[in-house]
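Request from the bench team (R.T.):
"We need a structural guess for the complex before ordering more flavin-adenine dinucleotide. Sequence and SMILES attached. Just send the tokens back."

Command: build protein-flavin-adenine dinucleotide structure.
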Amino acid sequence: MTDPRPLHVLIAGGGLSGLAVAQGLVKNGHTVEVFERDRDLNRKQGYYLHMNAFGGEALRSVLSDDLFALYQATSRTTYGRQESIVLHDHFGELSSQPHLGPPNTGETPHTGVHRRTLRQILSARLGDALRAGAAVTGYSEDRDGVSVTLADGGTARGDVLVGADGIRSAVRAQRLPEVPIIATGVRGIGVYGRVPLTPELREIVPATLMDGVVIAVDRAGSRMLVGVFDPRQPVHEAAKAIAPDVTLDPVGPYLMVSCSVAPGTEVPPSAEWTGETPGMLRDSMRRAVAGWHPAAAEIVGRMELDSIFMIPFGFIVPAATWAPSRVTLVGDAAHAMLPTIGMGANLALRDAEHLVEQLTRAGRGESGLIAAIGAYEQDMRDVAYPFHAMTLDHDKNFGGGALARASDA
Ligand SMILES: Cc1cc2nc3c(=O)[nH]c(=O)nc-3n(C[C@H](O)[C@H](O)[C@H](O)COP(=O)(O)OP(=O)(O)OC[C@H]3O[C@@H](n4cnc5c(N)ncnc54)[C@H](O)[C@@H]3O)c2cc1C
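Reply to R.T.: structure attached below.
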């Protein structure tokens, strides 16, 4: 046991997991510095994030009460069904299975959020502790602490370094250099866009498509994924009412859509996109769903061109057990997985919650610092790695295997 004292924790990465660690540590009386590589914290990273009780309860733990209330108010209306659903191309149901994760039965069940809104809530009140445009390039560790080096030549020193810097983590590259990154795709999806959810569209879209994240598939293997963001309270009004010092960008209800392109269409790498590319891809998606339920072409045809972008998919092969030190990893840096079971962010937030708990125990003098980090890491491997394994067989594990059966038939 050691003398109680607040810790100073360095965090590489200001994504969901790094910010959640920062919020939780500050809430528990510690100090943090978050180094985020991007200068623009609003870089396009995706739209709708499916939440479950791993992520939601972690947010309850790390956020102040009002910021947690703001997360709940800005999350989508409660789903009718707590299930992952696969539809055929005329939107009849092929199969369903209960959502993965712990029971999600609270008064306000965790459903889904607009990613940027959640990131803005998680950034709230961190002030100068969150430094944008500050890429971490490496670190050195000694008996008394850890120092990081930044791309601009700056340095910082703290008790602990948390690598929350995503799939291509610079911290992991030094800590666990043997971990491979596998670039891949999930058949047919990877180009995302948004469709405003207007009253007219609500009339056209079948109810089965409106309830969470739904995948439809045809026998040729084309897929369409739809996630509906329809917040419990308008986002900016919720901020005004619940946490007036927090600025949230307004965002109206929308459908997040990802759809296969027609066979033969090449999706160019993002760096090679021209002004014509989004329109070309949208036309190709429309061709891919020609012959489906008429709502499919309506939805794709309404995708806003400036919302269309490509997300390169990938995962890491997670490391086997390692000896703990002052340098640890959370979220995608530790277990980046394919996004197809909607777990990555939820587990990243859960990591943050458990790391904060352990570091707080160490700060109180209830356990040694390295032992506390080791306890966090063991729990993280026990819980997150089995979900990572499930994502490797997406077609078998989404919606009870209907995807695999439909594509095989
Ligand atoms: C298309 C898609 C849909 C998804 N949908 C869901 C879903 O519905 N539900 C779900 O639970 N999960 C989902 N996920 C997974 C989820 O997005 C990730 O698991 C989650 O974002 C991981 O959070 P993170 O903070 O660990 O990493 P990230 O969100 O990747 O954040 C890492 C941060 O570190 C910064 N950074 C990188 N390198 C450095 C450096 N050297 N120095 C400083 N900063 C650095 C990056 O700029 C970034 O801000 C989805 C993923 C994708 C791709």
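Two things stood out. The longest helix spans residues 369-391. The two ends are 62 Å apart (CA to CA).
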